[in-house]
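Batch queue: ligand-bound targets. Current item pairs a single chain with zinc ion. No template structures supplied; prediction is de novo from sequence plus SMILES. Inputs echoed for audit trail.
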Amino acid sequence: MVFCPYIELIFVSMNTRNRYRFFVTIFLLTAILSATGFSVVGQATAPVENWCSKPLRPGLENLKEIKTCKAWFKVYDVGHDTYAIDEPYNWEETIAYLILGKDKALLFDTGMGLDTISLVIKELTKLPIIVLNSHTHPDHIGGNNEFSDIFAMNTRYTRINAAKGYPHNDVKWEVSPASFCIASLPHEDTANYHIKPFKVAQFINEGFEIDLGGRTIKVIATPGHTPDAICLYDKQAGYLWCGDSFYEGPILLTGHGTDLRAYQQSINRMAQLAAKSTRVLPAHNLPIAKPILLIQAAKEFNQIVSGMKKGKPGENHTLIFDCNKFSYQIGERYLAQLRH
Ligand SMILES: [Zn+2]
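Prediction returned. Tokens below.
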């Protein structure tokens, strides 16, 4: 065991009684510090959420659950031959969607890659699968490499993320004890958790229409959260999939590639579509949101941009703008861009 030289000097000069007092003091100090959540290595640690005992998000109990071979995923029938594939045992609570047509199925996002989503998909449909991502953040592309027919937005941001994936260092916090319930994934090698690169079969652009056979899904470019963020619109069903651009929770505009001006245009465009929609289907927390909430989000965001709505300081140089059922957490450096 190596002591710091100064401590050693002090220690050697002490008599037995003082050495005893010294140990008792160190012991008590460590006990008090760790009881207050302060780790000996000096950084404050967030209270650990026990994802194993944490009840599922209220509202999920109202949905029709479909049992599959993988307990890590919760699958819900959200109507119109559409299934929500939820990962409620990780702090991200990421949701992917399987959208069935007569001839093909579209898998919108592939989750965190913490368990094998393709096995769940095989149980839900025998149709050929096209994969498309709401954006290429790690928690939405984790299972991409399990599939071969991957469509992707024709952006530089997408190409980089597809080519490199996300190494362990970029995503290790997703598998920290505070982030998920390891007991529900005993085989998970958290020390090597990473997001694998994937091969894109076809690059697409704004307005692209995916014909699934008796069902057409339109791709709408809605950059802002990332440069490659998209929404999907099914005019016939009145369904609007909005990725990370909106969900009931803290909407993050903090990461690399955030563009608030682009987000403002996108959220206003999404609000117009929401006015014609019966359901909004976000990529986190709850799979079904009322369209009125997305319309409210546009109003709130316009007030943030105009300066009418004030935020409160949040973690990591962000401001939090509370909007009741959801909030905006925005990087101060991006807000600064708005003001110039
Ligand atoms: Zn995201």
